[in-house]
Each structure stands twice: as structure tokens, then as C-alpha cells.
Amino acid sequence: MISQRTSAGLQAAKERGVKLGNQAQADANKAAAATRQAGLMPILATLSHLSSRDAAAELGKLGHKVSHKLVQRMRARS
Predict the structure, then answer these.
(1) In whole angstroms, what is the distance from residue 74 CA to residue 22 CA?
(2) Are the CB atoms for 67 and 56 separated by under 8 Å?
(3) d(CA 45, CA 29)
(4) How far apart are CA 65 and CA 63, in angstroms?
(5) Which of 42, 47, 53, 73 gives 20 to 30 Å between its CA and that of 21?
(6) For residues 45 and 40, what is the distance between their CA atoms, to the nearest angstrom?
(7) What is the pTM of this model?
(8) Is 7 contained in some domain?
């Protein structure tokens, strides 16, 4: 019941042209991610011979907190 009303309300707002979410925050997050990736790419290039888990571990030793999934995503974007 609540779910149906919520869905109907969101659909009505969409039809009225209302933009949902915080676009300024989304843009700030995207810019921060791009800056972080730009700083890590030279290091990641030297670790290209390692698996994503090993590269994440090496980055961790250098003081960068990254997961192996983030390493995979950064490699895919480059």
C-alpha cells in the first residue's frame, strides 16, 4: 500500500518535470572521484603486472585506502 502510493507520487512528480536528488552533490562526488583517479593512475600503471587484489594491497601500503573492485574500475576506465 505505502509502496504503491510512493511509486505513484514519484511518477506524478516525474511527469511534472521535478528533478529528484541532489545534483550538486552528485557533481561534487564525480569531480572528487576523477581527481582521486588522476592521482592514482601513475601508481596504478606501475602496478599493472599485479592482480587487482595485489595492486590494492600495494596501494594500501602506500597509504591509499582502495579496494580491489576500485582498482578494477579504474583500470577499466583508463
Answers:
(1) 25
(2) yes
(3) 24
(4) 6
(5) 73
(6) 9
(7) 0.65
(8) no
How many domains in the chain?
Answer: 1
User: For residue 38, is it within any domain?
Assistant: yes
Domain extent, residue 41, equals 23-77
Entry field: residues in the chain:
78
At 46, which amino acid appears?
T
Residue 4 lies in a domain: no
**Model pLDDT for residues 10-69, shown as the tens digit of each residue:** 999 989 998 888 989 999 999 999 999 999 999 999 999 999 999 999 999 999 999 999
SS3 assignment for 13-50: HHHHCCCCCCHHHHHHHHHHHHHHHHHHHHHHHHCCCC
What is the C-alpha to C-alpha distance for residues 45 and 65, in angstroms, rounded to an integer? Answer: 17
Tell me if 49 sits within 8 A of 41, measured CB to CB. no
36 domain residue, yes or no: yes
